[in-house]
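Appendix B, Record 12. Input sequence as logged:
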Amino acid sequence: MNILPVYKASFFLSQQREDGLKLRVIYAGDHVYTDFQIGEQFQSETDSLYNGILFGIMDVLMWYAILMQTKKICMTKKIDIEFLEPISCNVPYRAKSKLLNADEKDIHVTAWIEDNNGQVYSKVTALFREGRGMNASDIINNFDFSETTPEMKEFFDSFLE
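Logged structural output:
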């Protein structure tokens, strides 16, 4: 299990933010994932989790899926998302993401949220593009590596060379 480093200020990932989700992203070779169970503080008027929170989780995972496969810092350009079933509070789910394909300019990726039985509750496909003027070292220098392995730290240090 390879826990990925997190951006220290991330609402979704930081383990230090009291108001955040404190997700841990795991690198599994051909995909990334996170297990989560979110409480009522993010419950909508329909007694399910806000779709914006769900998209945010999938967007973060897509960013990591791209980073791990291409070593590129990318930004979301276009999304196609489906919310198939409501996601309940205080129930365990797993969100996954994997790279579909990448060429010189366009990077296509997908993510989805499923329950313990593999039923998919929401899914997204997206087009990402490499961020212009973005410096990988500026981002990576703001990562928290406290839960990563030395090998994962070494992988991310290779971005700085």
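The first strand starts at residue 2 and ends at 3.
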